[in-house]
Amino acid sequence: xxxRDVTPEPPPPGGVLWSLAGDVRTLLTLPAALTMQxxxxxxxxGVDEHSVFRTDPWxxxxxxLRSLQLWVYGGERAAEEGRRLRxxxxxxxxxxATGRAYHALTPAYxxxxxxxxxxxxxxxxxxxxxxxxxxxxxxxxAEWLQVGRILGIHDRDMPQTIEEFWPYYRxxxxxxxxxxxxxxxxxATDRPVPAPDRGPLPLRLCLRALWPVLLPPLARFxxxxxxxxxPPDAREAIGLDWSDxxxxxxxxxxxxxxxxxxxxxxxxxxxxxxxxxxxxFRHSAARGAGLR
Length: 292
Known about the structure:
This protein is mainly α. Helix content is 66%, strand content 2%.
């Protein structure tokens, strides 16, 4: 039986992604990966023309985060989510800013969207966690390839080793990546963003009333973490400035996060899907140990 005939499974419990993907610190890194993705002209055009990120940013963010969590913690639902995403992207097509026709499932474009996760994880970990060892880098990359298979990315369309990944990554940065209207919106601090519409009604009403005061500092913070947790070579390719003073502030933020987050109870440290999956795994392991 070929690999294409086998339903791909999510990365294993206890692996690097098992601890990483559901940790609340991941929320700080997602804007950097998203901005790298849309800096590709085909991906940027697809998001510009087909996404609801302007009209429903909170809903889109919630759905994207849930999808990512399912890839790692969803068990049998992981492959189902991968199929759903591919079906969703089948109709996304058009012409990008370079005049080139695009389709969201074109292997090179679809693979780039997925590929951005690895360098962002690796870069951000130096600030908000313990830097990976060489073995952990390789384990993380192997697990990220496994997630790619869940999403329907063929092995031939993704570098299969770290040694192959970095030349591929640098080539995409050199040949394809640049700023565009979507990138500029994602790092802007002066664009209108609707108040959050999730959560209990009293909280929503409070946020709506305070939103004119809260939005400016939140927009500045979003820009700060978007550019800060982006690998320097990607920043340079996109044309995003980053000063020594900003680097010092990011390192200070990282020191606080590294101290505080590991002290949080699991219900606050891990996102809901991850928390449930981790509890179920511990329960299953304990039950198995009791049977021996």
